[in-house]
């Protein structure tokens, strides 16, 4: 879960996005609305509520002149962290982007964002010029996901390595450089 300090940094108006950690999703001001569909289309609610491995969606509203009037997209990833044999945690994190190009306005929500990803986004916040591309948020989100996946792979690697060392070096003659 994100720390209160990170949530505060991320939710400042100049940052233009909000992070709702897993424990606060149901309590978010958005979902407490009488009609949360004002913010999220009904197709997005499984991303919040269902047990998914991952998903991506993108749609545009286009006016009669062929101009984009609205863009909606989201991405969701599931990441497993091994704590110790038989004990692990799952993270299902998502980004939701709604872009209104004529108004030069974006609404960006991050759901269940791990601290490392929140920190990454805070440091790599896109400039106002970059925000004209709604996929900048997906790019930054994906780069943060890579960091989290790397941590996930190493948590599994740390669990498996002692077993490998016994299988490869049954007499226990494995040096530190070989591990």
Q: How would you describe the overall organization of this protein?
A:
With 179 residues, the protein is α+β, with helices and mostly antiparallel strands. It has one domain (4-178). It has four helices and five strands, in the order H-E-H-E-E-E-E-H-H. A five-stranded mixed β-sheet has the order 1-5-4-3-2, with helices on one face. Helix 1 packs parallel to helix 3 and helix 3 crosses helix 4 (135-168). The longest helix is centred in the last third of the chain and has 34 residues, at 135-168. It is elongated.
Query: Main β-sheet, in a few words?
Result: 5 strands, mixed
**Proportion of residues in extended strands:** 25-35%
Unreliable residue stretches: 1-15
Shape: elongated
- Compute the number of structural domains: 1
Query: How would you write the strand order of the largest sheet?
Result: 1-5-4-3-2
Mean pLDDT: 78
Tell me roughly what share of residues is in helical segments: 25-40%
Number of discrete helical segments: 4
Count of extended strands: 5
Class per helix and strand makeup? alpha+beta
In N-to-C order, the SSE pattern is: HEHEEEEHH
Rg over alpha carbons: 20 Å
Distance between the termini: 32 Å
Topology:
Blueprint: H1 4-10, E1 17-20, H2 45-49, E2 54-62, E3 68-84, E4 87-100, E5 105-111, H3 115-123, H4 135-168
Parallel strand pairs: 1-5
Antiparallel strand pairs: 2-3, 3-4, 4-5
What's a quick, concise take on this entry?
With 179 residues, the protein is α+β, with helices and mostly antiparallel strands. The protein has 4 helices and 5 strands. It starts with a helix and ends in an 11-residue tail after the last helix.
């Amino acid at each position: 879960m994100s720390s209160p300090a990170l949530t505060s940094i991320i939710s400042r108006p100049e940052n233009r996005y909000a992070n709702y950690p897993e424990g606060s999703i149901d309590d978010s001001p958005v979902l407490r609305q009488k009609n949360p569909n004002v913010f999220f289309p009904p197709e997005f609610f499984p991303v919040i509520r269902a047990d998914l491995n991952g998903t991506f969606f993108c749609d545009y509203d286009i006016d009669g002149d062929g101009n984009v009037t609205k863009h909606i997209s989201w991405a969701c990833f599931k990441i497993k962290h091994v704590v110790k044999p038989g004990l692990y945690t799952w993270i299902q994190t998502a980004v939701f982007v709604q872009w209104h190009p004529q108004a030069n306005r974006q609404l960006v929500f991050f759901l269940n964002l791990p601290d490392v990803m929140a920190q990454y986004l805070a440091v790599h916040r896109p400039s106002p010029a970059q925000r004209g591309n709604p996929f900048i948020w997906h790019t930054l989100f994906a780069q943060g996901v890579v960091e989290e996946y790397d941590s996930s792979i190493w948590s599994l690697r740390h669990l498996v390595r002692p077993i490998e060392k016994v299988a490869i070096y049954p007499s226990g003659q494995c040096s530190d450089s070989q591990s």
